[in-house]
Amino acid sequence: MARVLVGVKRVIDYAVKIRIKPDKKGVLTDGVKHSMNPFDEIAVEEAVRMKEKKIASEIIAVSCGPAQAQDVIRTALAMGVDKGIHVDIPAKEFETLQPLHVSKMLAKIAQDEKVDIVILGKQAIDDDCNQTAQMTAAVLDWPQATNASKIEKGDKDVTVTREIDGGLEVIKCKLPVVISADLRLNEPRYATLPNIMKAKKKPIKKVTPKDLGVDTAARIEIVSVEEPPVRKGGTIIPDVDTLVAKLKEGGFVP
Amino acid sequence: MNTALFDCKATIIMHGIMFLRKTNRVGCRVENIGFLSDTTQKFPVERGEFNKLNNGHKGFFRQLLGDYRVITDNHDLVKYNNDWFGYVKGCSQIVLKPKTTEEVSQILSFCNENRLAICLQGGNTDVVGASVPVFDEIVVSTELMNEIIDLDENSGVIICQAGCVLENIDKKLEGSGLMVPLDLGAKGSCHIGGNVATNAGGLRLLRYGNLHGNVLGLEVVKANGEVIDCLSTLKKDNTGFHLKHLFIGSEGTLGFITKVSLQCPPRARSINVAFLGLQNFDKVLKTFRKAKEDLCEILSAFEVIDSTSMEFAKETVGITSPIGDYPYYLLIETSGSNPEHDADKLYKFLDLVLVKHLALNGTLATEPAKVNAIWAIREKIPEGFKHSSVLCYDFSLPLSKYFDLVEDMRNHMGSLAKKVFGFGHLGDGNLHLQIEVNEMSKEVRDHVEPNVFERVKQMNGSISAEHGMGFLKANYLSFANPPSKVEMMRNLKSMLDPKGILNPYKVFPWTYS
């Protein structure tokens, strides 16, 4: 049975409207509702299903971020993950933290925990980088299967169906492997109340980047964060009849 | 021989009467062939003594509103003549879209003088046939009366035109940290004017009370075109009769609401939703009492769904329970200003509910996207009605008998119904009873009504908790109210709208069968 590591990032909830900080150096996060990155939720769900099918023996969820990152680890634990590791990054440092930093930390934990499969969301909905899985595989020098929509585990390998432009690609990778989860891989469950209560008692280990031997010094400087230009209310309509109906509805034509 | 002749004569006379009756009844249809009103084919309703629309009238409306805001194209009229369920259907040949109170006033004054019947229409999301014409009434739509006039952030009062879509008002308020005090499944299409005219209830009534408390003022146009200004923004104003209340829930039969001033509470910064599975209704009631005690001031919604409702939702709109199958489900929402405080209260409550075995299972959403997803389970059930034939009822019942009615009706319907199910705002004692049938026939409806209303009356309930009487329940006005009350309603109607041009065939009975 495989040991599985999943990455869970705390991001601003996708139902919340994003607001830019007055100094234009980032987005407002204070008092804003956060949740687990939806693609990471899919990764967690896949790992939990593996455990339910007795393919996985233990699942570890890792989150890199400030103290509140523990919230999403708790969510993962409530969904069925066994233990959590919180890599504590001060809020200020977190602003310039990049996929390269995170992948080095994930790689180190993957080695320390002797995991066979790393499953990460294909991208986070805040920075949309889509790099962490690829970089983690590179740091570890493991095979990678990105944008997975189906994962089947064999004895010493996994067969992964990938969503690519214009179709599906099926690849086979030797273990250990890094996989990134795409939208259609599964539909994440709702954690049940008994499991939410139980999750409060599951262990979360706190470590620092230093413990993992990773330098999190900024490699970039944020020059400016801007809102996208406001779109001038255009809509796409299916046919001429709808166009005529819309014009009449608005009282523009008789 | 004599006898035979006598018989024959009698037959002729009888046929004669029947023929006369028929022509009388279909009087309006003969000329409008091709636009037969479905409603009048289904129900024995007779057209009132109103004049018919002619080219002169059309000319006046075009002069007043211009060509673009007068709709007469048959194709374009469809959406204004048909209700949301596709159950009632009028044959109006004109829709007017005023933008201002002055225009409404001129339209009404003209129609009153010319004895032309009017159907008032907002977002047309009504479910009792109130928002569509029955015959050829002129539809006056508030679609273009959609301006937000003023927002006072200090007092939390918004003034807007009657045609503002509820959700748009809420979006406007969001920027100021406020929210509308009512929330309905139809919020994306319903108009505030219609909400007020029908005294719409909805999901937040438990916390914020009904519109009689939240509407501070109204501007209303009487049938003769006179504008009544009750558009106060004051919370306290005892200078004479509180006339606005007359129009809240009048279903457009007393006047045309053109502007609304609404009191808006602060927008909650912390919203949590718990979804629970329970074994029986007794436990539902116990959980309700516990929720009121323990969650107290942060409790903002308490909705119940039975297992058959969930099956129906699964079959029609593909919604499933996120926690597995249970006889009853509860959706409990809390909203407040402090996330830690609310979470602490809610966790303690949920822990207790599980430990005491009141709930068998559940889930909790504390993040906006998940909160929305859980709410969608409850809000999407009515969308299934569009994919099936469902008789919808909306009752207030004493809580102890809340689900007895569903069981009673299931037995009463037997094989006539595919499904009998109930869900609703348990916190307000409001049950939405639904009867899904293979085909919506007169036989089926006659089997249900008035039987179901009698049962509700026996249980000391109300036959319309929030939907109103509209067209479909209008004949039960006297059934639901004592004679003195009905008499006073009639007096008010004849005083404010002596010619009865505003929403005829609605609220007041159209037949005494």
UniProtKB/TrEMBL annotation, chain A:
Its main location: mitochondrion. Residues 24-216 form the Electron transfer flavoprotein alpha/beta-subunit N-terminal domain. GO terms for cellular component: mitochondrial matrix. One of its GO terms (molecular function) is electron transfer activity. One of its GO terms (biological process) is amino acid catabolic process. It is found in: Mitochondrion matrix. SMART domains: ETF. The keyword Mitochondrion applies. Gene3D superfamilies: HUPs (3.40.50.620). Belongs to the ETF beta-subunit/FixA family. Heterodimer of an alpha and a beta subunit. This is Electron transfer flavoprotein subunit beta. It comes from Acanthoscelides obtectus (Bean weevil).
TrEMBL record, chain B:
Belongs to the FAD-binding oxidoreductase/transferase type 4 family. GO terms for molecular function: (R)-2-hydroxyglutarate dehydrogenase activity; FAD binding. One of its GO terms (cellular component) is peroxisome. Homodimer. Its main location: other. Keywords: FAD, Flavoprotein, Oxidoreductase, Peroxisome. Its EC number is 1.1.99.39. Pfam families: FAD-oxidase_C, FAD_binding_4. The keyword Nucleotide-binding does not apply. Its cofactor is FAD. It catalyses: (R)-malate + A = oxaloacetate + AH2. This is D-2-hydroxyglutarate dehydrogenase, mitochondrial. It comes from Acanthoscelides obtectus (Bean weevil). Residues 87-267 form the FAD-binding PCMH-type domain. It is found in: Peroxisome. The keyword Flavoprotein applies.
